[in-house]
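Predict fold of ABC transporter ATP-binding protein; 270 aa.
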Amino acid sequence: MLLEVKDIRVHYGKIEALKGISVEVNEGEIVTLIGANGAGKTTTLKTISGLRGLSSGSITFDGKDISKMPGHKRVIAGLGQAPEGRGVFPGMTVHDNLLMGAYTRSGDFTADLAEVYELFPRLAERRTQMGGTMSGGEQQMLAIGRALMAKPKVLLLDEPSMGLAPLLVQQIFEIIEEINRRGTTVLLVEQNAQQALKLAHRAYVLETGKVVKSAPADELLNDPAVQAAYLGGGAEHDLEAEAAQAVPPSAPASPAPAPQERRDVTEERS
Ligand SMILES: Nc1ncnc2c1ncn2[C@@H]1O[C@H](COP(=O)(O)OP(=O)(O)OP(=O)(O)O)[C@@H](O)[C@H]1O
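Predicted 3D structure, encoded as tokens:
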């Protein structure tokens, strides 16, 4: 296993944002974390990249415990991140933004630069333009390209589709797939659960700081409760409560609608 997040708890002051999250990422995979606003997706990613400290639990990457390793050393170790909000340097050119991505590296990275420009022809066209004047989608490309310049083993992506028009979302997801095909493992946080589940191999569903489901992505795409809660299929479901209800063998029949009924609702609305 390349990355193992084990039972991490993370606090913002007295608020416990992550209540014992465990996530595993194998080499070569695209794994996605989905969930509603405030579920803890971004906090999980920030804790993996070292921007937040953890109260308990551990993070192991490439065989080493990195729980206490500072963020910049995690980049050197092979964890690259394109953060939420992109974090492009506005007063630097596209080209210089990309070079900043290779800041932690030594040696020749001309080939990697050429590969980023090949993946993102738009960046090549605009290499002398200031980062801050690029469109939202272009800045997203730049943030991913910059993260790739560190030659990460795992690319951490926080909501790459945020605020982008559907066509651009499609493009960004195709590029992420291509990056994965070329050998980079991807951990993707997404609000756009539909697209993320289509792209990913495996997925975790987060609710209020906990993992409430984990499964192959195609299984979750066809899961009526996930469809209803996250794929535009109707009223929000409390997956945690449903899981708890399903546990006691002697429990009375659940008042929740049967999966088949939920599927009907999903189909009617789609
Ligand atoms: N800097 C902060 N200070 C205090 N609380 C925070 C801070 N950042 C996040 N939180 C809280 O931690 C919880 C998890 O937030 P997080 O941003 O990780 O969720 P998320 O699943 O990424 O949501 P979104 O999709 O809206 O970005 C939320 O309750 C949020 O209010």
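The domain at 3-222 is CATH 3.40.50.300 (Rossmann fold).
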